[in-house]
Design brief:
Helix content is 58%, strand content 10%. The chain contains ten helices and three strands. A three-stranded antiparallel beta sheet has the order 2-1-3.
């Protein structure tokens, strides 16, 4: 477990280091004619400069490590990670499905899941209004690539949208409650990875089902996740705030 967490953080640090260097990449970039590939879910909250920086970061990471193969087993692991962590945090899983689409001229596997959702009302604004609820969304954001790591299927260029959001969310939460972003990020990663480690059997069952069937219904989810116990995450920030020397 500790080794997986250490490796995951190394991967993230490598991706972010590459992102810092990305301003030197592709000076001829024209957003009007080129799509934002692998863009984060929260792009509506980002400035033009941030969007350009993230686009160039994607190019730099893919140039160094290659394009994520986005295989069916990877997509199945990601979807399974999202639904299991959501279930542990008390959400109702309505279903999940895997599908193929073309990326840079080749087919890749992606996934979607449907569940009760707490909303995202703007990155900074929502974090300041309800940091605990925002933390729940942030934890589930990283659950996909955490599941890939636990399953041994991660790739340096995989889930770049979630990696970028994983850098933005802790900063917003930290600003709202007066904690260093790194401390918040560690809480997020520890919770997601420990949850998936505890529920490794369910992770394997769900990802195996999705790889075979390409979809999971609400009834399937109820059956396969019957042994998953809910955990209250409301105290995570309070516990962190109570630790000496953690506040920024």
């Amino acid at each position: 477990m500790t080794e997986i967490l250490h490796t995951l953080r190394q991967d993230q640090n490598k991706a972010m280091t590459t992102a810092i260097q990305a301003t030197l990449q592709r000076p001829s970039f024209r957003p009007e004619t080129e799509p934002l590939r692998n863009a984060p879910n929260s792009i509506a909250n980002l400035s033009r400069e941030q969007l350009l920086g993230q686009y160039r970061s994607v190019q730099a990471i893919e140039c160094e490590f290659g394009i994520d193969p986005a295989t069916l087993p990877q997509a199945a692991a990601r979807a399974a990670g999202h639904v299991i962590v959501a279930k542990v945090m008390g959400e109702t899983i309505r279903g999940a499905r895997l599908f193929r689409q073309s990326y840079t001229g080749k087919p890749v596997w992606l996934g979607r899941n449907t569940r009760t959702w707490h909303g995202d009302d703007g990155l900074r604004k929502y974090a300041s209004e309800n940091p605990v609820l925002f933390l729940r969304a942030a934890i589930n954001n990283i659950a996909g690539y955490c599941a890939e790591a636990v399953a041994g299927l991660s790739h340096q260029a995989s889930n770049l949208d979630e990696h970028f959001n994983a850098a933005l969310y802790p900063e917003a939460i930290g600003d709202a409650v007066g904690l260093p972003a790194l401390a918040v990020k560690c809480v997020m990663a520890d919770f997601a990875l420990s949850t998936l480690d505890v529920h490794r059997r369910q992770l394997d069952v769900v990802r195996g089902h999705l790889a075979r069937k390409r979809r999971m219904t609400q009834r399937d989810a109820g059956r396969m996740l019957a042994g998953v116990k809910e955990v209250c995450v409301d105290d995570l920030l309070e516990n962190l705030l109570s630790m000496e020397g953690v506040r920024s």
